[in-house]
Design goal:
The structure holds 2 protein chains of 2 kinds.
Chain A lengths: L7 E2 L6 H9 L5 E6 L2 H15 L6 E2 L4 H6 L2 H15 L3 E6 L1 H5 L4 H11 L6 E5 L8 H16 L10 E4 L5 H13 L4 E4 L2 H4 L18 H5 L6 E5 L9 H9 L3 E4 L5 H15 L5 H21 L3 E5 L2 H13 L3 E6 L5 H10 L8 E3 L4 H10 L4 E4 L4 H7 L3 E3 L17 H40 L13
Helix pairs in contact in A: 1-7, 7-11, 13-18, 14-15
Chain B lengths: L16 E3 L24 H9 L6 E5 L2 H5 L19 E2 L4 H6 L2 H13 L7 E6 L1 H6 L3 H12 L2 E5 L8 H44 L9 H19 L2 H17 L4 E8 L5 H11 L2 E8 L4 H6 L5 E4 L2 H15 L3 E3 L5 H15 L2 H29 L3 E6 L2 H14 L2 E7 L4 H10 L5 E4 L3 H11 L3 E4 L1 H9 L3 E4 L10 H16 L3 H4 L7
Parallel strand pairs in B: 2-3, 2-4, 4-5, 6-7, 6-8, 8-9, 10-11, 10-13, 11-12, 13-14
Antiparallel strand pairs in B: 1-12
Helix pairs in contact in B: 1-7, 4-6, 7-8, 7-9, 7-12, 13-14, 14-19, 15-16
The chains are: A alpha/beta, B alpha/beta.
Protein name (chain B): Nitrogenase molybdenum-cofactor synthesis protein NifE
GO molecular function (chain B): nitrogenase activity
Keywords (chain B): Nitrogen fixation
């Protein structure tokens, strides 16, 4: 469905640099420096800090008026120096913003020059061009992963037995779950990025301002030697795909998969692990799978009444729509603010067999989503907390998944993937539908069959009819 | 791994940090942030957005790429009693090609969409400029003028390109936009004046000029006085005095009709968690009506008639003193700096307002209000003081007026302020903080997380007061946290506010979790 409006009302997307920030948070001992105006880093820190409930330190080169007119090179150089002094990072991501791109800053040249003139050989400085107007957080995230690999991965000439795992933007708990599953197959792997510890830091009395954990530079360097790459990014353009790059550059076979939410998507992931590891599927996973199927059967009649609006990151929408579709919850509206051509095609394929007329939007906003939520009798929304606006205004319940979640705790502990996570996630959706049913069926039936008849009999409304009404 | 270096402040930052009692000069402040230092500050746009956005029935259109609109959508807790257009984030969502070819065309199309779609009925559109717009040179003024002519509504550009200064500059940009809106009043009163009275006035002037005076029995001095008087009167008819007359007559009419004795404006309150309403309730109770609130729960109509008020009271001086000064210049409205954060400040402010208005009934009513509310509030505070005395607090907030009121309140509660800093404080603010704090207190401007961490640890703070970004830092350090941000969901002003403050401090500082997390497994 094309979007003819130009005015954006209540954005269903963020900008590229925040995608870059999330990606860099999964690299060990790393800091991010945003080349641009001071506000960008502050806004994004706030956005990420409320979601992950962690301190998020992001530096800015604080370009001022002078820098805008005469170039921000000096700001960037000074920013790098101060950042190194304050944080002693091993990796620095230098990313651009709207401002830096518009005034034509060449960060690659500036960084090359900086490396020449300063003793920073122990620090990997990675540059990524992420103009805010160039795309959404979705592109920013995948582009950053690819740039990290392009600038660090090498081939030693010897193949390793390792698997590269390119993670989607998931929660730290979900990354831990993927690692747990990989361990069940005794696979050696490199997870990129690995936010499982960095954005969910266990409390200790000894706070360190660069959080522990993350993918190490030495691991990343060896990703060119890997045996396989699994990338959770089925909708990602090949120009942004790290798996495609590793395949083209180092001839590493690539499996590009949707996020393993739901039976079908998790099966795909598990089958590939069995294939590449040459191992049988472990009994524990088989049992988890059996329990998920059991739940699907137990809940199918409740789920069958679901009419869902699903929004947020394209990759997350695809996975959530998939679990909805296979459980009989109609994914009536699937909408992303990201401008992505393949989105409609992929989701059409996914929902080819559903009876409802699915509405698929890319490059949309929450005003449009809200209009359709009301027009199409949606009874459940699944997406990030920006949907809370519709929940508040129109009373349609929202299951919060994805990024950002500002108004509830536990975003970093959400675990919706694999058989077990899918099972929990499905229960959440089903229980919301059940709550709707139980809270309303008495009232609804009373209204429809008793009250309407009584209204006909007498024009005067009896007093007790007001009981239980809104 | 902590680097030894990381515990030292950057050399360039040293002048922005001082210890009370050390005999060095003034703190450095009000400067552009240091690159790479992880400043907690935002940008010009952010300043403009927070000050202007609560105008509830205006359309706030962000002209720029999507990020600026996305990160500021409905993030602040300003409450509204009516329209809530301000809770939606409108943006031109500029893309690559708009940057290359200029964004004016898209801005025009977007305004057209706003004007022509049924669901919107803008009376006023504020267009916020962002970084990119400042660089590619879109002429917002020209587009706004064109749109005003075409649609007959007010379209007001806000000069808020992010890089072009600090947040304070954004406050000013917002104040300018508000003044722009208020200029409608001037235009309106001029129009009314000229339509209805132009002819009258002309005749009157002619009559007075032509009238020959009777100087019989006067000496020269007396003759001159009569002539001067005559000239002054003619002058007043010809110039702005007519506006004042119009204004005064209006006020008189309204005051006579209603129960209120005086009409004033409230500046620098954003009605976070009903704070503006609380202040308004106090004022109403003592016989004062609010004409306009700047800008919490404000409407276009209120702002347009704000010039009819006889006094401006300024709560958050950092953001709105500029507007107060400008309104004094433009409309001759005097202003008072007040603060309803903290008990003593609230009492002082009520009395100060009453005294200024010089109305005995209001003065009496203020004392009645205080007598009614004070004992209960003091009794509640006494209970909390038992739980809080002796604790140590660190403060890092955006505006200095918040920091100052917090230190005062902490002093009252027996809490020692061991560190206090602001993002946007001015030299005089830091002087006041120095006065209020004990020797050894760290005072800092535009601090970063590393500095906050070091000083909180060094000073053994029990609680950090700050914004959203600082919360996670405090928690990660195992320190209590008090939310003094624009998302707060309970009011901190007036009698109820001081109790809420003490209650939240007690809740976080004395939570059983601090004991629980430090017991248990042996390592």
């Amino acid at each position: 469905m094309s979007n003819l409006k130009r005015l954006n009302v209540n954005p269903c997307k963020m900008c590229m640099p925040i995608g870059a920030a999330i990606a860099f948070k999964g690299i060990e001992e790393s800091m991010l420096l945003m080349h641009g105006s001071q506000g960008c880093s502050t806004y994004m820190r706030r956005h990420m800090s409320t979601h992950y409930e962690e301190p998020i330190d992001i530096a800015s080169s604080s370009i001022d008026e002078e820098g805008t007119v005469y170039g921000g090179e000096e700001n960037l150089r000074q920013g790098l120096k101060n950042l190194i002094k304050l944080y002693s990072p091993k990796v620095i991501g230098v990313v651009t913003t709207c401002l830096a791109e518009t005034i034509g800053e060449d960060i690659n040249r500036i960084v090359v020059d900086f490396k020449k003139k300063n003793d920073v050989k122990d620090i990997s400085i990675i540059t990524v061009s992420t103009p805010g107007y160039g795309g959404s957080q979705f592109e920013g995230y995948y582009l950053t992963l690819r740039k990290i690999i392009e600038q660090l991965a090498e081939s030693s000439g010897y193949k390793s037995s390792k698997v590269n795992v390119i993670a989607a933007s998931l929660s730290p708990a979900e990354i831990r779950e993927i690692k747990k599953i990989l361990d069940l197959f005794d696979l050696e792997y490199t997870m990129l990025p690995d936010i499982s510890r960095t954005l969910a830091v266990p409390f200790t009395e000894d706070y360190s301002k660069i959080p522990p954990g993350g993918t190490t530079v030495s691991e990343i360097k060896k990703m060119g030697d890997a045996d396989f790459t699994i990338e959770f990014g089925d909708l990602v353009d090949s120009s942004l795909s790290t798996a495609v790059y590793l395949k083209n550059e180092f001839e590493i076979p690539a499996y590009r998969l949707p996020i393993p939410i739901g039976l079908k998507n998790t099966d795909k992931f598990i089958n590939i692990l069995a294939e590449i590891s040459g191992k049988k599927i472990p009994q524990s996973l088989k049992e988890e799978r059996g329990r998920l199927i059991d739940t699907m059967i137990d809940s199918h009649k409740y789920n069958g009444e679901g009419r869902a609006a699903i929004f947020g990151d394209p990759e997350m929408i695809y996975a959530v729509s998939s679990i909805c579709q296979e459980n009989g919850i109609d994914p009536v509206i699937m909408a992303t603010g990201t401008d992505l051509d393949i989105f409609e095609k992929k989701l059409k394929e996914l929902t080819a067999e559903t009876r409802v007329n699915n509405l698929i939007f890319s490059d949309t906003d929450f005003e449009e989503i809200r209009n359709y939520v009301n027009e199409y009798d949606i009874n459940i929304m699944i997406g990030n907390s920006d949907g809370a606006f519709i929940e508040e205004k129109d009373g349609v319940p929202l299951i919060r998944v994805g990024f950002p979640i500002h108004d509830r705790v536990g975003a970093s502990r959400q675990q919706n993937i694999g058989y077990q996570g899918s099972n929990n996630f499905l229960d959440q959706i089903t229980n919301q539908l059940l709550a709707l049913k139980h809270n309303n069926y008495r009232k609804d039936l009373y209204k429809e069959y008793y009250q309407s008849n009584n209204d006909k009999k007498t024009s005067q409304k009896p007093e007790e009819l007001k009981v239980g009404e809104k | 791994m902590k680097s030894p270096k990381s515990n030292e402040a950057l050399a360039e930052r040293k002048d922005f940090i001082m210890t009370k009692g050390d005999n060095k000069g003034n703190i450095k402040c009000d400067q552009h942030s240091l690159a790479g230092a992880v400043s907690q500050r935002a940008c010009v746009y952010s300043g403009a957005r927070v000050v202007l956005n609560p105008v509830k029935d205006a359309y706030h259109l962000v002209h720029g790429p999507i990020g600026c609109a996305s990160y500021t959508w409905d993030i602040r807790g300003s409450l509204t009693s009516g329209a809530d257009f301000f809770r939606s984030s409108f943006s031109t969502d500029l893309r690559e090609k708009d940057i290359v070819f200029g964004g004016e065309a898209k801005l025009e199309i977007v305004i057209e969409e706003l004007m022509e779609k049924e669901q919107y009925k803008p009376e006023v559109i504020f267009i916020y400029s962002t970084c990119v717009v400042g660089v590619i040179g879109d002429d917002l003024k020209a587009v706004a003028r064109k749109a005003e002519e075409k649609y007959g509504v007010r379209v007001i550009p806000v000069e808020s390109s992010g890089f072009a200064g600090t947040k304070s500059k954004g406050y000013k940009a917002a104040c300018e936009a508000l003044l722009n809106l208020m200029s409608d009043f001037k235009a309106e009163s001029n129009r009314v004046d000229s339509n209805k009275k132009a002819a009258d006035r002309k005749n009157k002037i002619k009559e007075i000029s032509d009238r020959s005076e009777d100087y019989t029995g006067m000496n020269t001095k007396e003759k001159i006085r009569v002539l001067q008087k005559k000239l002054r009167y003619i002058n007043s008819l010809q110039t702005g005095k007519a506006i004042d007359d119009f204004k005064n007559k209006k006020i008189k009419e309204q005051v006579e009709k209603g129960k209120y004795r005086k009409k004033i404006n409230l500046l620098g309150d954003y009605n976070l968690a009903a704070e503006g309403w609380i202040i308004e309730n106090y004022l109403n109770e003592v016989g004062i009506e609010l004409v306009a609130r700047f800008t919490g729960d404000s409407s276009i109509k209120d702002i347009r008639r704000a010039p009819t008020a006889e006094l401006n009271i300024v709560q958050c001086a950092g953001s709105m003193k500029y507007l107060a000064k400008r309104m004094q210049q433009e409309f001759g409205i005097p202003f008072l700096e007040i603060s309803f954060l903290g008990l003593q400040d609230s009492l002082d402010s009520l009395r100060k307002i009453a005294r200024f208005l010089d109305d005995q009934i209001i003065i009496n009513k203020v004392e009645k209000l205080i007598a009614r509310r004070l004992p209960d509030t003091e009794a509640k505070l006494k209970i909390y003081k038992n739980y809080l005395a002796g604790k140590k607090a660190a403060i890092y907030v955006g505006g200095a007026f918040k920091a100052i009121s917090l230190v005062k309140q902490f002093n009252d509660l027996g809490i020692k302020t061991v560190m206090v800093g602001t993002q946007n404080g001015k030299e005089s603010d830091y002087e006041e903080l120095k006065e209020l704090t004990d020797s050894g207190t760290i005072i800092l401007d535009d601090a970063n997380p590393s500095e906050l961490e070091v000083f909180m640890r060094e000073k053994g703070a029990d609680v950090l007061v700050g914004g959203v970004k600082d919360r996670a830092l405090a928690y990660k350090m195992g320190i209590a946290f008090f939310d003094h941000n624009h998302e707060r969901k309970h009011p901190l002003v007036g009698f109820e506010g001081v109790v809420n403050l003490a209650q939240e401090l007690d809740l976080t500082i004395n939570s059983p979790i601090w004991k629980a997390i430090r017991s248990g497994i042996d390592e």
